[in-house]
Amino acid sequence: MFTPARQGKTTDIIIERIRTAILAGKLQPGDRLPTEKELGQQFQVSRQTIRESLRALEHVGLITLRKGSGGGAFIKAVDAEVVVQGLANYLYFKNLTIADLSEMRILLEPHAARRAAQRATAADLQRLTALNEQTRRAIDRRDLDLVTTSESEFHRLIAGQTDNPILMLLLDFDETLLEDFKRILQPDQAFMEAVLASHETVLQAIVDRDEERAAEHMRDHVEAVERHLAQLRQNEDGCRLWHNCLQTTDNDALHQGTSSKEDAIRQHAGLF
What we know:
The protein is mainly α. It folds into two domains: 10-75, Arc Repressor Mutant, subunit A, CATH 1.10.10.10; 81-268, Four Helix Bundle (Hemerythrin (Met), subunit A), CATH 1.20.120. Helices cover 73% and strands 3% of the residues. Strand 1 (63-66) and strand 2 form a beta hairpin. It starts with 9 loop residues before the first helix and ends with a helix.
């Protein structure tokens, strides 16, 4: 299956060859790789080099290593949550702004709404309706966590209508960041009511199979959320929450060393 690895850093070449085989469809989730001895013969490297390569592949989530009878290296599908959290960890060090997040949402979410108007099944429409109803109940109970979760799931379900794994991953990531912004800035009930009203308007356009109206309403909704969160970010309470969160996060990063900035943000914003 594999040819000798002779140039560059051997482990990197082996990892790239196996990743390429997965992309080409030659290896599927659940497939067992050849034994260490067989891989060593194919790549013409030592078993120690193979072990290092397999450990690296396991670390990035492309394989799982099993011990004992029936063990070995098995291809596994990467968990989207792992990818999303990895991206979040990276961007927490990039001075991410609400405007950055909204720019991506404006580019992608109207398209997703248009696709939902084309493709959503009766079951999908029922689920979207149920999420709005759940949001309504959560608002009445002033359950911010459930409101935020329900709002995000509404967008994720619409994103799923694109049937495009790249867009679905990006929009899932987008919602993860938005959830963090909301939990740090703690928007008020008026904001939650406005979001729900927008979701109901978007849903009605999807139910009516009006692609352009669905896209237009989604864009209006994303822009309204950006305006509100940006305004909240600038007011006295929002600034205090934001700076306290980031200041505590920076202090934790100094004391904890290997702890991720994302973990500290989540802890001090009350996300755990």
